[in-house]
Amino acid sequence: MRRLIPSAAIALGLLAAACTPAPNAPTLAHLPALNGDYFPLTSTATGRTYHVYVRLPEAYAETPDVHYPTVYLLDGDSTFPLLAPQHLFLGYDDAIPEAIVVGIAYGGFGEVNKRGIDFMPPGSAAEAGAPAFQAMLKDELLPRIEARYRADPARRILVGQSRGGAFVLYSAFTDPDLFWGRIASNPALPPTTDFFRGPPAPAQRQDLTLAVVNGTRDSARLRPHTQAWFAHWRGRPAPWRLHAIDLDGGTHAADLPNAYRLGLHAIFDAEDEARD
């Protein structure tokens, strides 16, 4: 997934131009749906620098005692300017709880973008950087977010599209407790399909949710692998509650906002059911 929609790239350009790395400084105050913060993170685990964009809830300043669910968006170069405003609308229309939204970006779609390494699990022909990228999330980014903002460590959500969706599955299989909820949109399973048929690591928590959304118009190369994965895991024991969702008419990338909506409903509806 190099580019989701042209308007997302334009929004990112505006975002990058307007944001400054000053600690705790609100950014894009003139665009409140994206208002929050920015900081660079140079990772010792992967050896590269990421651009971290943070969208804070509308009432963040007025709710000093509230700790919020936190959504971590892979491919933040495209997904942050697309999904951070979407989360605001989901609160208005669907009663999805407010959240801190974090975009993990590379700063471009060209050579600087290392998603083809960071999201690749062991067993692929390419460089398998997923273990190091997950170490960056676990040991560097998540602690920094949770120290800097009122982020609830018990309600972390990881979201990825295409190859990013495959990384979401990698995380679910290797460290299920790291995120409370996960959304994988049209995961690109080849060339690592076999990895995702093996047994997942055990989990301590009993309230984990994995939503995998597959558009009926997903790539003809990818959809059969996702459907086979659905068939393989339906009814099998797993450390997470699996929601295998077919998105009618959904295409590979353009329907990411719909996948996000369906995935968040699966996660928060499960939370509501647990309370009842």
Helix fraction? 25-40%
Q: Give the termini separation.
A: 39 Å
Query: What's the gyration radius in Å?
Result: 17 Å
The largest sheet, given as strand count, sense and whether it forms a barrel, is: 8 strands, mixed
Percentage beta strand: 15-25%
From the spread of the alpha carbons, the general shape counts as globular
Helical/strand content category: alpha/beta
Tally of individual helices = 7
Helix/strand order:
HEEEHEHHEHEEHEH
Low-confidence stretches: 1-26
Write down the overall mean pLDDT.
Answer: 89
Q: In a nutshell, what does this entry contain?
A:
This protein has 276 residues and is α/β, with parallel strands linked by helices. 36% of the residues lie in helices and 22% in strands.
Describe it.
- There is one protein chain.
- Mean pLDDT is 89; it is low at 1-26.
- The chain has 7 helices and 8 strands.
- It is globular.
- It has 276 residues and is of the alpha/beta class.
- The protein has helices at 6-18, 76-94, 115-118, 130-148, 163-174, 223-233, 256-275, and strands at residues 36-42, 49-55, 68-73, 100-105, 151-161, 181-185, 209-217, 241-251.
- The chain has an 8-stranded mixed beta sheet with strand order 1-2-4-3-5-6-7-8, sandwiched between helices.
- Helices cover 36% and strands 22% of the residues.
Topology (SSEs and partners):
Blueprint: H1 6-18, E1 36-42, E2 49-55, E3 68-73, H2 76-94, E4 100-105, H3 115-118, H4 130-148, E5 151-161, H5 163-174, E6 181-185, E7 209-217, H6 223-233, E8 241-251, H7 256-275
Parallel strand pairs: 3-4, 3-5, 5-6, 6-7, 7-8
Antiparallel strand pairs: 1-2, 2-4
